[in-house]
Amino acid sequence: MQKLMTRKISTVALAGALAAGLALAAAAPPAGAQTDEETQRGLERFRQMLREDPWANPALLDADRGELLWTTAAGPKNATLEDCDLGLGPGVVDGAFAQLPRYFEDAGRVMDVETRILWCMQELQGVDVAAYVKRPHPSGGQPVKDVGAIATWVANRSEGEPFAPVLDDAAGRATVAMGEALFNRRSGPFDFSCATCHSASGQRIRLQELPHLSQPEEAQVAIAEWPAYRVSSTHVMTMQHRMYDCYWQMRMPQLEMGSEASVALIAYLVDKAAGGEIAAPGIKR
């Protein structure tokens, strides 16, 4: 079993990668001479340098913390999460993330990894999840919260495996259909939908590419890296947090963690990403 803090970030390596990446992305040619494609290639090379150095991803520290949280007794029942069933049987973690979201008979609904962890915390440990759901995501510069850390560890234990969500039953199909409807539905004061930004290839906001998430080839790459360390906010962001943040950017009503809507959106995206190789936790801008 990995122990907390077994992985130590090499600040020298990270600083070197950052400097090299910035030089590649921003340097040298006269103003206007560097094309968008060249800039994007430089940024992608910078990200690849970080991916190739196993000590340069701060999210791995949160994965270690998540493992410790999984095995530490907590809550009113003073219990661990080691009997939590993520779909492959109580306590089985390896490969479980690759088959989520899925329908859980004991809960009577489809769940993604974070919703299932939250359910296990409530059922096994007696944690007041209503209190947790009020503020489940970190602010900028703050570490990812407990559920997110556990989810990062669980996701990392499926690294290299293909996404194979179990969504071919009636409940799964209905959840994916709901997610597709929400993905394409325009609403809110800006009349935006998820598809406004993610329904065509080659779009971007500033230097950030916007993947065409309804296309499996692009969804497989984009979705496979979540949870991910966000350099801009210096913390891990999970898929539930990503959905929450997108709704916030569209000025939509707050998307509650673990709600049917949040799980449906994730189920739709993972269904599109089926077959893609999991590379979590990733590193994002």
Automatic annotation (TrEMBL):
Keywords: Electron transport, Heme, Iron, Metal-binding, Periplasm, Signal, Transferase, Transport. It is an enzyme of class 2 (transferase). Residues 1-25 form the signal peptide. It comes from Salinarimonas ramus. GO terms for biological process: sulfur oxidation. It is found in: Periplasm. One of its GO terms (cellular component) is cytochrome complex. Its main location: periplasm. Its EC number is 2.8.5.2. SUPFAM superfamilies: Cytochrome c (SSF46626). It catalyses: L-cysteinyl-[SoxY protein] + thiosulfate + 2 Fe(III)-[cytochrome c] = S-sulfosulfanyl-L-cysteinyl-[SoxY protein] + 2 Fe(II)-[cytochrome c] + 2 H(+); S-sulfanyl-L-cysteinyl-[SoxY protein] + thiosulfate + 2 Fe(III)-[cytochrome c] = S-(2-sulfodisulfanyl)-L-cysteinyl-[SoxY protein] + 2 Fe(II)-[cytochrome c] + 2 H(+). This is L-cysteine S-thiosulfotransferase subunit SoxA.
